[in-house]
Write a structure and sequence with these properties.
Blueprint: E1 8-17, H1 21-28, H2 31-37, E2 41-48, E3 53-60, E4 62-73, E5 76-87, H3 91-113
Antiparallel strand pairs: 1-5, 2-3, 3-4, 4-5
Helix pairs in contact: 1-3
Length: 118
């Protein structure tokens, strides 16, 4: 039997939002929003960090971990997003689709919190 490396997804993203961390968390960390941003991922909370974000263990399309870390900075919040794990289909394609969905969804929240419309 030949050893094959497992297909890995490793995504890191940052987005600035002109809003307080708790406002960002309230708009972002709901089952409805997260299900839309991460379809196919089953989430189990590992650590709820309040205004600083949430860490999850994941199953489904990616077996591993993900995190939203909310960093308070002057004038707003930087939303750090991490996904790391094994993806048993096509990890590059999954990552590309995920990045587009994540950024699109996060920018809808950003626009709403910053008082802009698309």
């Amino acid at each position: 039997m030949r050893w094959r490396p497992r297909p890995v997804v490793d995504i890191v993203d940052e987005t600035f939002i002109r809003a307080e961390p708790l406002a960002v968390r309230s708009a972002l960390v709901t089952d409805e929003v997260l299900d839309a941003l991460w379809p196919g991922l089953e989430r189990e909370v590992v650590q709820d960090r309040g205004a600083k974000g949430v860490r999850w263990r994941t199953g489904g399309e990616v077996t591993g971990r993900l995190e939203i870390w909310l960093e308070e900075v002057a004038g707003g919040t930087i939303v750090h997003h991490f996904v790391h794990g094994e993806q048993h289909g096509g990890p590059r394609r999954w990552a590309r689709t995920h990045r587009a969905r994540w950024k699109g969804g996060l920018h809808v929240i950003k626009d709403r919190l910053e008082g802009r419309s698309r």
